[in-house]
Structures are given as structure tokens and as C-alpha cells.
Amino acid sequence: MKRWWHRWIRTPGELRAMGVVGINMRNARFLLPNNPRKLYDLVDNKIRTKQLAIDHKMAVPETYAVVRNPHDTSVLEKLLKGRESFVIKPARGSGGKGVLVIVAREGGYFIKPSGSRLTLDELKHHCSNILAGLFSLGGRRDVGLIEYRVHPAKVLTEISFQGAPDIRVVMLKGYPVMAMLRAATRESDGRANLHQGAIGIGIDLATGRTVRAVHHGHPIERHPDLKVPVVGVQLPHWDAILDIAVTCHEMTRLGYLGVDIMIDEDLGPLMIEVNARPGLAIQLANGVGLMRRLEPALERSQSHPHDSHDQKIAFSREAFGVKLSAP
């Protein structure tokens, strides 16, 4: 018998029975009641988020420079002096938009993970687009961050095509409810963004082992470019990753959020960003409807309002481990 994700068209009743959460339900039942509007800027502005993380003793990628105005863009060469690799991203970007990864320099050119070569003028143009708000939420004027490029742990580079994979953990009331790894493909140009062609890989919350993978919504067992297995991979530092996720809830006070983390080969887990409106594709990656995780977490928060940091992690690992994940 085929499972629910093998058929594209489902009735609303079937989706409810599967526990699938849609945009409207997410917004009405989980975002609005749990995320006060006044707290959004803590996570919508990556500069503020990074400072909060530093204040809470979390490791984050080093910031090399901030491009705040056209003058900073004009002296970009000076800001990049001595930097062979780096990432340029909008402070208020979302969905991976505007993130430019440079892995090396050759003469006057800057090399992307795909091997494409960019000139300094093209980098300046990209920064100008960031300042103009081309990639930011609501099209607001923005600033650009130039920061350390994560060098992924070897176990992750083996399952990602020329790009750094990241881990998304979705939280409710401080309880991790679902996690996935997003790995780059040739199509996604080194970006770990599912809408740009990356693959989503579900993770067992109890162990940090990958359990399922999808590419453009279709289940897969192997990476479409590298042809290596992407299911059954043990992620390193899983205890630390869950600890970071719960700390992000504590530092932002947001009730419903997504936390993005990368694992550096030398530095270990690094908190990349926090999202107050996490997407729903994580359900496809895990083959489980979010409602089956969110309702137990909500009930636990109401019955045990004084659960500690460690108790929240322990509950999630026990309640949402693979042994209980089958639909």
C-alpha cells in the first residue's frame, strides 16, 4: 500500500486526517497566537539576531563587514581585502534570496560554488540590489552582511553538491517538533533552498539520523547529482544542535519558529538565522504532518509549564523519535 505522499491530489479531509498543516492553519493556530508582532524584528534583522546569539554564548559565523550605504559599496574591494571566501547576504532577506556565496578568488574574479566567475563590479551591483531592498521582506531598504563562509563537516559535503547544507529545526513553545537537512544540488547553485532545487532530508529528532529525502516533492534515496545515499546518514553534534534550537526560543521569546544551523568542520554547529514564519515543506521531507507533532508539544507545554531547557529536549526526543513517526 502506498503512503500518502505518493499521491499528489488529496481532499481537505484526507489532509486533515494526515495531520498536514497548511499556510492558513499555520498562521491562525500557531503564528498569530505565539509570535507577538513586536518580537519579529529580533529575527527579521539578521544583525540583531546574531548579536542576541552572541549574548547567549552561541557560536555564529564571523561578520567581516556590513554594507550600509552606497559609499560602503564603492569601497567594497577594501572591505574584502584578504578574504578569499565569504558570503554576502541581505540582513532582512528570506528564503535564501540575495545570498551570494564566494568560495575562492582567481586574479580579479570571485568564484561561486558552481565555478561561475564574478567581477568586482558584479559584486558591487549585488550589494546595491541588497541596499535597494530587492531581496528583503516587504521590499524595505536593507543592509548587506559580509561574513565567514561555513566549511561544512565532511559527512555533509559528501551529500551536498558544491554548497553548504543547513539544518532547519521547527519549534513550538521551546519544544523541537521536526527537523530537516537541506542539501544543495547543481540546480540550486550551491544554495540550500528547496524552492531553488535543493533537496530536503528528514531527520530523526531522537538520534540526528536522516530518515527520508525529497527533491521537488518526490521521494528520493540518492542525491540527484552525486548519486550517493542521503538516507541513513548520521549527523554530528546532534545534542548541541538541539541545544542551540531551544536556546533560540529562549532568546527570542517566539513561540513558533524555525532555527537554521550549519555544521562547520572546525568550529562545529553555528547558528545561522531564526525564522518567525518557517515554511511547511519540512512535512514532505519527513513524510509526517506537522499537526502530529505540534499538538503533543502544545499539550505538553500546558501540562508541564515549567519544563526546563533539558526537559524540553528530552520530551521531544522521546515523543517524536522515528519509532513514533510513522503515519
From TrEMBL:
Database matches in PROSITE patterns: ATP_GRASP
Tagged with keyword Cell membrane: no
One Gene Ontology MF term: ribosomal S6-glutamic acid ligase activity
Pfam family, one: ATPgrasp_ST
Domain of life: Bacteria
Entry keyword set: ATP-binding, Ligase, Nucleotide-binding
An individual GO BP term: SOS response
Gene3D superfamilies documented for this protein: ATP-grasp fold, B domain
Stated name of the protein: Alpha-L-glutamate ligase-like protein
Source organism per UniProt: Luteolibacter luteus
